[in-house]
Amino acid sequence: MSVTNGEYQRRDARVLVQETGIEDERCADLAPSLAAVLVGTMWHIVFLSTTLTKASTVQPAYLLYNTTKGAIEQLTRVLNKDVGRKGIFVNAIAPGPTGTELFYKGKSEEMLKTIANFNPQGRIGTPEEIAESIVFVSGSSWLSGQIVAVNGGMA
């Protein structure tokens, strides 16, 4: 029997709900954007947002995407206030342009060069750099309720 990553995420979110006694089990439905990491005796929830929520030059095609990411950022702040009392840390990572197959799809070399030059390092971030930031946030015993921009200084 094959279990998909999404099924693992949904199961892990339900376990988090059951283990902590969070009253609203609808939180389990957030699993696709949720990474719950057990670090010692601390639970960490790390949501994924985007640097685009801080940009003023976002094109209309990104309206729905930015709206949902803005909701994730507010969820991070409010959920932190609720579950923080139970020893659960809630944060979000807001990556900038990240070199994934999906990100590169349909973009010309000229467009990629322009995007890379939006940040001081003149390059596009890597998935490994985003993963490092999630590990960093998940290892903190004081960082909570924050949206951490991980974008090489572009915003």
UniProtKB/TrEMBL annotation:
Q: Which InterPro entries match?
A: NAD(P)-bd_dom_sf, SDR_fam
User: Signal peptide position in this chain?
Assistant: none
Top-level division of the source organism's lineage: Eukaryota
- Which keywords does this Swiss-Prot/TrEMBL entry list? Oxidoreductase
Q: Name one Pfam family in it.
A: adh_short_C2
Q: What PANTHER family does the record point to?
A: NADPH-DEPENDENT ALDEHYDE REDUCTASE-LIKE PROTEIN, CHLOROPLASTIC-RELATED (PTHR48107), RE15974P (PTHR48107:SF7)
Family label: Belongs to the short-chain dehydrogenases/reductases (SDR) family.
This protein's name:
Uncharacterized protein
Q: What is the lineage of its organism?
A: Eukaryota, Fungi, Dikarya, Ascomycota, Pezizomycotina
